[in-house]
Amino acid sequence: MEANEMAIFQIISLAGDSRSLAFEALRCARKGDFDQAREKLEEARKSSVQVHQIQTKMLTEEAQGEKTEVSLLMVHAQDHLMTSMLARDLIEELVQMLEEKGGNDK
């Protein structure tokens, strides 16, 4: 597998990890476990930082003249990245709202 494909698969994997951790955080918050929710969100942010580093490296290489082939796999990776970022951002707000509301409304 070439380096570009490996980077693409890393983006897909890490973005998926970030999204999953964010949803775990939301489940924790719904149960009133805000400490655990914040831990999960921090883990999600760490995965996002790793993805961002990979993407930045690819963008830098392209800016330096190393053209990246835009494949369906690359589009899929970018889709995963953007949806995971959106999910994490929204879930962070939801967790904060739940905590401000008083936690568990069951």
From TrEMBL:
Cofactor: Mg(2+)
The keyword Lipid biosynthesis is annotated on this UniProt entry: no
Modified residues (Phosphohistidine): H76
GO BP term, example: phosphoenolpyruvate-dependent sugar phosphotransferase system
Keyword Transport tagged: yes
A matching Pfam family: PTS_IIA
Stated name of the protein: Lichenan-specific phosphotransferase enzyme IIA component
Protein encoded by which gene: licA
Record-linked InterPro entries: PTS_IIA_lac/cel, PTS_IIA_lac/cel_sf
